[in-house]
Amino acid sequence: MAEKKVCEDLVKERKKCTFNVEELTRLIDGGEDKTMERREVEDMVINAGGLSTKDEVPEEYLSHKERYENAIRKASRLFEVFREYAKTHDTTDAFSPTNKYRVSFGVVKDISPFMLHMGMFVPTLMNQSDPDQVAEWLPKALSMQYIGTYAQTELGHGTFLRGLETTATYDPSTEEFVLNSPTLTSYKWWPGGLAHTANHCVVVAQLYTKGVCHGVHPFLVQIRDLETHMPLEGIKVGEIGPKLGFQTANNGFLGFNHYRIPRRSMLMKNAQVLKDGTYIKSKNDKLTYGTMVFVRVLIVTDLAYELSRAGTIAVRYSAVRHQSQPKPNEPEPQILDYVTQQHKLFIGVATSHAFRVTGNWLWNSYSKVIKDVSKGNMDQLPELHALACCLKAVCSRDAAARVEEFRLACGGHGYMASSNLPIINGIVTATITYEGEFTVLMLQTARFLVKAWKEATTGKVKTPTVSYLVEFFKNDRVIWENTPSTMIKGFQAIAAGKIRTAYETLEKHVKSGMDYEDAWNSASVQLVNASEAHCRAILTEISWKEMVRLSTTVSPSLAQVLLQLAELYLIYWTLEKRGDHLMYSTITRDDIQKLQTRYEELLALIRPNAIGLVDAFDVRDEILNSTLGAYDGRVYERLMEEALKSPLNAEPVNQSFHKYLKPLMLKAKL
Ligand SMILES: CC/C=C\C/C=C\C/C=C\C/C=C\C=C\C(=O)SCCNC(=O)CCNC(=O)[C@H](O)C(C)(C)COP(=O)(O)OP(=O)(O)OC[C@H]1O[C@@H](n2cnc3c(N)ncnc32)[C@H](O)[C@@H]1OP(=O)(O)O
Ligand SMILES: Cc1cc2nc3c(=O)[nH]c(=O)nc-3n(C[C@H](O)[C@H](O)[C@H](O)COP(=O)(O)OP(=O)(O)OC[C@H]3O[C@@H](n4cnc5c(N)ncnc54)[C@H](O)[C@@H]3O)c2cc1C
């Protein structure tokens, strides 16, 4: 088939670009070799038989059941393709932040029913099992003999893990655990793939041995027969029903009726139960929560990726769309030329870069701490937990806001399923809740910050990410200059100030006679604000420093663009938080006006590179799945092509006319 022409607007835009798009793509991927490898995997998947979505009825027209069956067909075929690839290639980076397996969005448009298998089941087996268990289970999980999920949340409790009700009671006479769901609220509820996909799962349950409860522990549990896939006796399993998004994730429920599993089904890297029922405690009981920390860390870079998908759609569309006539007798401008549109779009693009570099930094910190933990050194665990909590929480909330802004920037067409923005919206919004709900995680960080504040009052802090607190004691009002380093110091002063205020409020409540828990609840709005401010201090400092560092490794033309994006991100947030800066620095109205002017200059500087910047994300059309965002910009043709796929358009008159409309019309004549 002849190549379809690229829309003239995009041809012109691409000529304007001042930097080498391929150079930026390689930087985003983490190196030329990574880009080549990713593209190789994408080519392999896109060209593999049985995976193309091109000529299919769009999945939104399928029934709930058909949609799931279609997702399973494709996810299975995709796995076969990956299995083939793994025979000749190193696939260890499946769990890295810059993994090349995001291509799966080009196959299963929404969330794959295998997401939890690769995202949580396999990592939990790898990181929470003892070496013998890893040797026995991991090959089966990696080869998909065991298809698994992570079953922790229950109908009654998701946040409060110590309140989970599923029990695993050790019976030394048979050397088995008896799993039981004593109440309706103890049913597992939510795990992805649990409903009809998984035959195994990691179940988090209250461990009882010798009549003592030792708290929640993970167990590997078979739930379906490997031949027939029938639920095993004592297992009640099913699907929880339609949701806002995640339509093909196959989220399920699960109950146990005195269901027996062997003693060695308990994941025993950290804690153990011996044959006679003796309990050996973990060095740190929070290690059981390790998979959640791992996923929270990964979510930050994944959000950057989701922003790059949504940003590509909205920016390309904005270059193709023309609307209104500000100057008489002149053509309608591209909507991308409206400064308000640039304000909606460019901060989303800059945020994708900020999250990616911060996410990579967080991943490196995580890897270092986990290495130390494996040697028995847990010192950095609280700081890592506090960082992962607030970054996951704030980045997911910001990303959801940015994706919504991208959708709004596409006007009516952004509301079309065929734009793919609604599905991306559903995926990103879910991250605010899953893997630890927003407020709950912010309050976890607040616990750490309150302790750090107490420490800082003695003039020293042990952890580097809160060292700014000590500086605040020397000078609690930053002397303002409109420079990046002052802006960063400003965010640190705001964080320190808000931590101090929240701490003082907490103390005041305690002194007034309140229990600590009640005082905490009363101060919790301020505590969440303090966590947010701390997270903004981290995001602004790390993203700026990392972008500056990266700019020294690339050509001058690209360096200039990276610095513009980094500065835009800093100034955007300084302006957003101008009220706070007024409280904690000497910033003046005049400084703020100058920053506003600089912000608008940056929008104008970025404008010629808008298409180059999203092209550099290098999200291929097959993965973008969007009528509005394709590389060739054939927006209107694609919208019509997709509309014509509606089954309602297969016949000129729908039968409902004869059944309902006509009788209604006839009655009107009487
Ligand atoms: C766009 C994105 C795409 C892809 C992303 C990539 C992969 C995705 C894969 C799968 C995701 C899809 C589905 C989602 C799955 C799930 O949601 S699984 C279920 C997740 N559930 C949760 O996250 C539950 C949240 N709750 C908790 O984590 C905890 O219960 C708690 C809220 C932290 C409280 O725990 P607890 O009550 O036991 O503890 P406290 O008494 O409050 O605190 C005691 C001290 O322990 C410290 N602590 C708590 N957790 C940790 C930890 N993980 N590590 C280290 N330390 C921890 C806590 O701070 C207290 O410390 P102290 O202040 O010093 O006392
Ligand atoms: C799309 C999706 C996929 C999921 N996949 C899985 C999965 O695969 N496996 C799995 O085990 N789970 C999964 N979950 C469950 C998820 O982890 C939980 O829903 C999440 O942790 C929030 O817990 P919850 O639902 O109990 O919310 P709740 O804790 O009931 O939250 C409700 C409200 O109460 C507030 N609240 C609760 N506790 C406190 C507190 N201490 N202080 C202040 N406010 C509080 C919250 O802020 C929130 O506003 C998934 C959820 C979703 C949405």
TrEMBL record:
The active site is at E435. Residues 20-147 form the Acyl-coenzyme A oxidase N-terminal domain. Transmembrane segments: none annotated. One of its GO terms (biological process) is fatty acid beta-oxidation using acyl-CoA oxidase. Its main location: other. Residues 289-450 form the Acyl-CoA oxidase C-alpha1 domain. InterPro entries: ACOX_C_alpha1, Acyl-CoA_ox_N, Acyl-CoA_Oxase/DH_mid-dom_sf, Acyl-CoA_oxidase, Acyl-CoA_oxidase_C, AcylCo_DH-like_C, AcylCoA_DH/ox_N_sf, AcylCoA_DH/oxidase_NM_dom_sf. It is found in: Peroxisome. GO terms for cellular component: peroxisome. Its cofactor is FAD. Belongs to the acyl-CoA oxidase family. This is Acyl-coenzyme A oxidase. It comes from Trichoplusia ni (Cabbage looper). The gene is LOC113496636.
